[in-house]
Structure formats: structure tokens, C-alpha cells
Specification:
- With 189 residues, the chain is α+β, with helices and mostly antiparallel strands.
- The chain contains four helices and four strands.
- It has a four-stranded antiparallel β-sheet with strand order 1-2-4-3.
- The protein starts with a helix and ends with a strand.
- 8% of the residues are buried.
């Protein structure tokens, strides 16, 4: 009888207890993975809460300035209004405004500190978009120079990429300046 019970218990172990034990072990491994993921999600929620608190600690005026500096999209009408506001202070009006569309990741060449004819390629992060824009203004050289100064002092990131001018035929010290600029925006994921 004892021999039969030993054979039955060995059979039960191999047929039922062994596979069940293996299944429990694999379920415990899956549980450990879920527990790790849950801990990671708790850390992420804590980090999110910390970043949200830090974001909320900024003054609304500073957040508005940041949105002007690097907006999440280019509002072409608002950009033209801003440029016209800068130019209107000097009696200059924008004409022939042309948006060239998004510069698909091509970084503009930086010319500061390089030799004439030599360009330095600047790598641009993939989440920064460039919007090329060109326009024409009619002004004296001094007023145009002041317009460029005011443009450089604005909060919006703007690079002047090209300037060309045509003198007035009547000799009254008025020029037509064609200006090309790049403005930037942050592409949200």
C-alpha cells in the first residue's frame, strides 16, 4: 500500500503539482514586471506633478513672453501685426509680405565669425521649425536701421537672412528695402 501511495504521489507531483508550480512561478515573474511598471508610473506621476508645480510657479507674464519667444505654431497674422507694430513706430509700412512655408529642417547658415564666402552650418533640433518670410519696406536708411534695431530687440526669435535695396529715382534719400527673415517655432510632439 505504501508503495502505491508513493507512486501516486510522484505521479500527482509530475502531472499536477509540477506544472502548477511552474505556472505560479511564471505568474510571479509577470507580477514582478507589473509591479516594476507600477513603480515606474508612480515615479513618472511624481515627476509630472513636480514639473507641473514648477510650471505653475512661473508668472503668467513670463509664460506669455516664453510663448512669444518660441511659440508652438506660427500665427502668420499675428506675426505680420507684430512686424507692422515694430515698423509703424518709425513711419514704415510692410509691403509684399510673402511666407515661404516651413523650412523642412534645413538650418540656415550662420555667417557671424566666418570669412567672406565661407558658411558655417548649424545643426537644428528636429523639434524646432523655421518659417521664412520676406517683405519690402520703403524708408530712409536711418529709419530702416532703427527698424532693424527694434526688430532685434523684440522677444520673438528672428534671423535676418537677406537684405537688398533699391534707391529712389527722385533722389529724396528714400530706399526700397527687401528683407528676408526666418522666425522659429517649437513643434510639439
Amino acid at each position: 500500500m505504501a508503495f502505491v501511495l508513493i507512486i501516486v504521489s510522484v505521479g500527482v507531483f509530475y502531472v499536477y503539482i509540477g506544472p502548477t508550480y511552474q505556472e505560479i512561478q511564471s505568474q510571479l515573474a509577470v507580477k514582478a514586471q507589473y509591479d516594476g511598471a507600477l513603480n515606474d508610473s508612480q515615479k513618472i506621476l511624481g515627476l509630472r506633478s513636480e514639473l507641473l508645480d514648477r510650471y505653475n510657479s512661473f508668472a503668467p507674464a513670463d509664460l506669455k513672453k516664453l510663448d512669444i519667444l518660441l511659440p508652438s505654431y506660427v500665427d502668420t497674422i499675428r506675426l505680420i501685426i507684430e512686424l507692422d507694430g515694430v515698423s509703424a513706430g518709425k513711419g514704415i509700412r510692410l509691403k509684399n509680405v510673402i511666407f515661404s512655408g516651413d523650412d523642412s529642417g534645413q538650418a540656415s547658415a550662420a555667417r557671424s565669425g566666418t570669412q567672406i564666402g565661407e558658411t558655417l552650418e548649424v545643426a537644428k533640433p528636429s523639434n524646432i521649425g523655421i518659417t521664412p518670410l520676406s517683405f519690402t519696406v520703403v524708408a530712409t536708411y536711418e529709419n530702416y536701421q532703427m527698424f532693424l534695431k527694434l526688430l532685434s530687440e523684440s522677444l520673438r526669435l528672428i534671423d535676418v537672412t537677406e537684405i537688398s535695396f533699391t534707391p529712389s529715382l527722385d533722389g529724396n534719400n528714400i530706399f526700397e528695402f527687401k528683407t528676408a527673415i526666418n522666425t522659429y517655432y517649437f513643434k510639439r510632439p
